């Protein structure tokens, strides 16, 4: 876990990881705002449109793979919070490794659900976030997609840290379910509907505040122009981000006693 940003002082408690999740909400909301300023720009995602020499794939795949390769060289993926979308294309890091505090079980490294995140992002989130049509800003669109995808992925895979802290605080609750490979029981133990509802409401409120065009005339809030529909932020948490985070937690816990 990144010492400077996610957990100053290397103190891992349920409260500290919850604060980390709250901070990541801001990043995701700003990412939604940034992506919403472009229309769909469907050519960004069409393999036959880009026709990049020596590369087979869409423009967004080209941008993501090459950006991740550069970031891998710079050591980004040495941080256990980071999970790449195309790890199979990784070069080795060329910078000295940083001694991140290792609190996760070694099996955590094998948990990467970015393929599911990728599919849900393009198939389900984008259609309700952006306007149809195109404006030609395909490279900028791909870069915006990458930033938002990385923020969402970081938040979902942060479930590994949440699960570890929960396990350490109450191992007697988790061990029997883990040994029985009881996915349903673990999911039930990890689910707090009141907390999830609070998170959804907070995210939507942040989207309302961060996503408004600020004026100086004291306009009534009902007349305020917004950069995107705030309910999209709440829906993204309800339908994808929270469920996938719990999926990561369950997968992590099932490996915890190996």
Automatic annotation (TrEMBL):
<dbReference type="GO" id="GO:0009073">
    <property type="term" value="P:aromatic amino acid family biosynthetic process"/>
</dbReference>
<dbReference type="GO" id="GO:0004106">
    <property type="term" value="F:chorismate mutase activity"/>
</dbReference>
<dbReference type="GO" id="GO:1901747">
    <property type="term" value="P:prephenate(2-) biosynthetic process"/>
</dbReference>
<feature type="domain" description="Chorismate mutase">
    <location>
        <begin position="138"/>
        <end position="249"/>
    </location>
</feature>
<dbReference type="InterPro" id="IPR002701">
    <property type="entry name" value="CM_II_prokaryot"/>
</dbReference>
<dbReference type="InterPro" id="IPR008238">
    <property type="entry name" value="Chorismate_mutase_AroQ_euk"/>
</dbReference>
<dbReference type="GO" id="GO:0008652">
    <property type="term" value="P:amino acid biosynthetic process"/>
</dbReference>
<dbReference type="Pfam" id="PF01817">
    <property type="entry name" value="CM_2"/>
</dbReference>
<protein>
    <recommendedName>
        <fullName>Chorismate mutase</fullName>
        <ecNumber>5.4.99.5</ecNumber>
    </recommendedName>
</protein>
<dbReference type="InterPro" id="IPR036263">
    <property type="entry name" value="Chorismate_II_sf"/>
</dbReference>
<keyword id="KW-0413">Isomerase</keyword>
<keyword id="KW-0057">Aromatic amino acid biosynthesis</keyword>
<keyword id="KW-0028">Amino-acid biosynthesis</keyword>
<dbReference type="GO" id="GO:0046417">
    <property type="term" value="P:chorismate metabolic process"/>
</dbReference>
<dbReference type="GO" id="GO:0042803">
    <property type="term" value="F:protein homodimerization activity"/>
</dbReference>
<comment type="pathway">
    <text>Metabolic intermediate biosynthesis; prephenate biosynthesis; prephenate from chorismate: step 1/1.</text>
</comment>
<dbReference type="InterPro" id="IPR037039">
    <property type="entry name" value="CM_AroQ_sf_eucaryotic"/>
</dbReference>
<dbReference type="GO" id="GO:0005737">
    <property type="term" value="C:cytoplasm"/>
</dbReference>
